[in-house]
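tl;dr need the bound structure. longer version: we got a ligand (adenosine-5'-triphosphate) that a collaborator sent over and nobodys looked at where it sits. i said id run it. heres the input, straight from their email, havent touched it
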Amino acid sequence: MSSIIKSVKRWFASPATETSGAGANTQIISRDQHSISRKDISENALKVLYRLSNAGYESFLVGGGVRDILLGLHPKDFDIATNATPEQVKELFRNCRIVGRRFRLAHILFGRDVIEVATFRAHCDDNIQQAKEGMILRDNVYGDIEEDAIRRDFTINALYYNIKDFSVHDYCDGLSDLRKRQLRMIGDPETRYREDPVRMLRVVRLACKLDLSIEQKTLEPIAELSYLLEQVPAARLWEEYRKLFLAGAGKLTFQKLREYGLFHALFPATDRALKHQDTAQAQQTEQLVLDALENTDTRIATEQTVNPAFLMAVMLWQPLLESTEALQQKGNNFNDAFFKSMARVLNAQSQHISIPRRYALVIRDIWSMQLRLPAHHGKKAWSIFEHPRFRAAYDFLLLRSQSDPRQKELADWWTKFQDADANDRRQMLQQTATGKKRRRRKPRNPKRQQASKNRH
Ligand code: ATP
Ligand code: MG
């Protein structure tokens, strides 16, 4: 922590040097005036930066990498900007793949580590292809670094670290906003949200993740424009969903998305359940989601894995139960209603955030296991326990029991079963079996019992 404070202090104290040649607002901060050191940059990112530079191209670290280092944090990935076209980048790297339709980018692959290289792009009204609402559909017009800076979203994301002389280029007053710890949209916020509505989600995500305030003008148009998110392809929103909720500040992000009126556009059915007229019911739903997000944040903080399917299963649990109840009222039995509802709820959600098939299967498993977990006797208990999705299903049950006391006894049984040794497990299963038999002995239908006695 102290090293973070030191690095931020050192950088806060440094006066910026204005240079001629660049635009009026441009500041170029020399190496001795800022806190970015090559030690903060990953080996792979440095390799790419140097190879581009040695081949005669301009080569800058940009975006979250620069921003996070200046904030004294460890960037999660490194983005590079250059004047080389994606094809020229590909010529330099054997491990390069060109991706993207809306933006053509070069990905340099080092095992699982991907370094993204973007060509400087101009924000040129005549050349970008826009939809009716002003949304940019294609945007592949190359430009120079200053043009590239102003088409980025927030001022603090438009800082460039030059590998040639280790200076930082600031074209949009990003350093001043970083000092204020505020997110400010470059240009007119409403226009920029219309061009790309995902920027509304990015404001909330970055503010929560980095503990930044949101400049008033940047915040203002969001409530009015949240409906624009409906036009964003559902596949892109799956990626955003992961970044929003699985990056360490999911709980706060959820609360802020609701506060700014954006949650509804992502999870309409969950949002309805959270506003259910039965307030106790609504509170229970909220508690379940908050508990899940808190667990997720803790898991990320302690470097445990998180599965996007688990959280999706939580978000859609109450809509699933409500749909099941509605189908039961139409005469379906519980099981049929439950399984039909799984498909319905997943389909409806996929209109907004498309859930890749392999994750949809996990969600279905977690849900259907909730019906099997109560039948914990004999062979059935073992087959549940050995199911590949047992752990996730058990965690889900545990979570449910936190907001729904009726599930506590069952959750406790499974906790005890997992902790028990072989002997104790056998005993537990015997107990459940005797309990079951004893329950069975109770006359369920006195008339039928009488009839059966008469037969003997
Ligand atoms: P993170 O730490 O989550 O990676 P990031 O700001 O680096 O945050 P990326 O999605 O990696 O986010 O994007 C890299 C950079 O590309 C951003 O910093 C920003 O300059 C630019 N950018 C990304 N998305 C947009 C967008 N929708 N509109 C304009 N610029 C964007
Ligand atoms: Mg990034």
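gonna send this back to them w/ a short note. Residues 1-180 form a domain with the Beta Polymerase; domain 2 fold (CATH 3.30.460.10).
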